[in-house]
Amino acid sequence: MSAEPVRMAVVGVGHFGSFHCCKIQSLPGADLRVVVDVDSDRAASAGARFGAQALTSIEDLAGRVDAAVVAVPTPEHHQVAARLLAAGLDLLVEKPLAASSEQAQHLCELAARRARCLQVGHLERFNPIVREAFARIREPRYVRLERLGPFPAQGVKADVVFELMTHDLDLLLQLNGSPVESIEAIGFSVASPWADLASARLRFADGMLAELASSRVHPQRKRHMSVLDADGLLEIDLDARCLWRRPRGEQAQACDPVSCSDGDPLLEQDRAFVYALANGRQPKVGPEAGAAAVALAERIVRSIESGARG
């Protein structure tokens, strides 16, 4: 285990990047040295707030830090991450890993070739209610995932499938390792040039059926997962961090809810990244998992664009 704190940078200090700065600053094993943003005023403001050097270009990071969190808009993930991996930095890249399967695969290969740690920010993996729910699920047959909310104040740079639905695609891929045989999807633009609401129906090779609904033009925030498995129906509120089970049987009554109120998923995610670096471990959410979610998102987008099964 390394005795020295990991020297870190956050690249992109907008809405979410600033949250990363707060978490990293609180970790004893990390030392937030640099913040980077193409907006010089935003970089300077973040630098002053977090006591870090402010830069406007990633080209100036070499030799200053050992690792970086990449929190730039999705279309820029590949370019920024590829340059930082080539420069020898370990990375935590916000989800989705990249804007296409080709880009994601390139990052996987580059990380392996440079022997760098590359973790992907699939935050729900660190949600305590997800861990609790997955420990209870047995032989899932039907899954429904809803991820809805208002249009983000900071704007968007990609469609809702990549921006929101990838959270749930990662959960599905962890729940069921069999191939996805068919996809039917629709999506509509409302407030941006891209699809702002989308729904998808996925059938897995083992027969499991999944339905997903994602919207960023919904008046209220909702993060919900329903799973029908061998033991009945499991309902999970990902935001409230509670779940309840209705067992199989005509007269069955729902069991008392289980709550997991403690825990800070973003802090735990960043802690896991720092721990992996300090101890020479593999990241909890590696690049292959990130690439798999991107590949599935890409298939859904193609289905939306073609109006046909994919």
Task: Write a brief structural summary.
The protein folds into two domains: 6-124 and 265-286, 3-Layer(aba) Sandwich (Rossmann fold), CATH 3.40.50.720; 128-263 and 297-306, Dihydrodipicolinate Reductase, domain 2 (2-Layer Sandwich).
Characterization of the model:
By secondary structure, the protein is an alpha/beta fold. It has two domains: about 5-125 and about 265-285, 3-Layer(aba) Sandwich (Rossmann fold), CATH 3.40.50.720; about 130-265 and about 295-305, Dihydrodipicolinate Reductase, domain 2. The chain contains eight helices and 14 strands. The protein has helices at about 15-25, 40-50, 75-85, 100-115, 130-135, 160-175, 265-280, 285-305, and strands spanning about 5-10, 30-35, 55, 65-70, 90-95, 120, 140-150, 180-190, 195-205, 210-215, 220-230, 230-235, 240-245, 260. Strands 8-9-10-7-11-12-13-14 form an eight-stranded mixed β-sheet, with helices on one face. Helix 3 (about 75-85) runs parallel beside helix 4. The longest helix is centred in the C-terminal third of the chain and has 20 residues, at about 285-305.
N→C terminal distance: 46 Å
Low-pLDDT residue intervals, each spanning 5 or more residues: none
| Strands in their spatial order, largest beta sheet | 8-9-10-7-11-12-13-14
The major sheet is characterized as: 8 strands, mixed
**N-to-C SSE string, H for helix and E for strand:** EHEHEEHEHEHEHEEEEEEEHH
Q: CATH topology of the largest domain, which one?
A: Dihydrodipicolinate Reductase, domain 2
Compute the number of helices.
Answer: 8
